[in-house]
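question for whoever is on the cluster today: can someone run the full assembly for these? two chains, 584 residues total. i dont have access anymore since they changed the login thing
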Amino acid sequence: MKVVGIDVGGTAVKFGYFIDGVLKEKLELKTERDLIKVMKTGISSLASLDELDSIGVAVPAPIKDNFMFNAANMPWGNLNIKELLQTELAFKSIEVLNDANAACIGEYYFAEMHDSAVLITLGTGVGGGIIVDGKLVEGHNGFGGEIGHIHLDDEFGFKCGCGSVGCCETVASATGLSNIYNAISNKEVDARTIFDMAKENDADALTSVDLYSKYIARLCQTLAFIINPQVFIIGGGVSKAGMFLLDKITEEYTKLNTYKELNKLEFKLANLGNDAGIYGAYYNSLKKQPEE
Amino acid sequence: MKVVGIDVGGTAVKFGYFIDGVLKEKLELKTERDLIKVMKTGISSLASLDELDSIGVAVPAPIKDNFMFNAANMPWGNLNIKELLQTELAFKSIEVLNDANAACIGEYYFAEMHDSAVLITLGTGVGGGIIVDGKLVEGHNGFGGEIGHIHLDDEFGFKCGCGSVGCCETVASATGLSNIYNAISNKEVDARTIFDMAKENDADALTSVDLYSKYIARLCQTLAFIINPQVFIIGGGVSKAGMFLLDKITEEYTKLNTYKELNKLEFKLANLGNDAGIYGAYYNSLKKQPEE
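^ ran it for u. tokens below:
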């Protein structure tokens, strides 16, 4: 089986060429307004369309049954993106899903999980993907797992890009950590530097990381009371802070949580890094079943 | 098909006798420590065990695959409650589920829904049930839909029975409305009276109901970003306030929410009242398929 998995991002489009379940080659192209052209270029650099069994695509917009909604960062508006791609690429076997959901499916199948899982992607924003009994929760309008805009903060009141105040993204993304540190120290520093400083026991950085971890723990607690997954997978750029961050999150989660059964839930770091999206697009194009 | 659906509560055990899908007879007995005895009495008053096809039981504790956890109000501790009941009643075809989940299944199948739904039960506490693509989300430890302890409030800081502060139940239950009214007016009044006063335009009661509805709207928004159900079903004793409450909740929800796709989600009042649990226990005993 030969498959190309594509992960469309705001600045880059990533391509992965999978042969019999193994990622053989990767490619990254700059995102352009004419995404079809970029896709054609990327695919043809890796393989010929004739020899492909399927193409999987992940896009940064809510997707329900291959239909795309509310695509703020995409030039296509509300449409059946699968049909559009089938026509434009003159290729039939295409499956489309949301990028955060793709990352979730990627991590889930790659780690050979079998129970329910929530992926929390901590990057410039906060994304999420939810799998219950092996199946993605897309939601009625494709907003399943769109956890970035859950209301989490009434203390700082940072404004969110969505027009609200106190969304998850304003305190739990990389930007959120910078927001918190800035509110405490009145200095503008990026998330990576704040983690480095916290690891060196800088007081303001430590306070910021503790608060930051508490917001993520709160998010996990909310998810535990709704989905009660077996495992939380922490991914995205911020997760490069590694076990330092994971330990803080589990510590804060255990402090918040009064139900001992829910303290047994697992917290894991994501495995696939930036490749999670192309893996998920690939698995999804095979109807969510990984190849043997 | 002859089935008895049983809904075990803290003060009463409700029994419903269903013949070919129709609720023929109801019975309510006082909850006693020896619940098996109560069950035997209730069942034998309605039918003989010999002629029953199945028994469905709803209990006020988290259930996962018929196993009961953390049963604060039940005398049985952590155990396989299905096996226990099978032995004690000498009857094989028994299915057990959580009471809030039972109510959700009851409302869902009774209203012949087919998409995802969240039931929010506003009573002395707040319970919930979540159905995604026709299937109940039980969660890894049976805590799926246990929405009563999601953190919702940082303003009043009321203490919750679980040991936390600011849980959903402290502001969104009947007790929660009393808490809010008491904080505003310094008077202790029950929820029903507060609704009556609000309908008569009493200023403090109206302010309380508006705030109360905002907390429920916030809860729904959080659920929309995680599950994105097609419909929210509002049930429990508080839902007797009817369209007055439902209109307030949808008004506050629309104010909070910045994603227009999510403003299309439906809000409905529950249909079955106190019978939702026995209907759900009944449907669940038929492997969640209602009879034709």
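summary bc i know u wont read the tokens: The radius of gyration of chain B is 19 Å. The CA atoms of residues 138 and 144 of chain B lie 5 Å apart.
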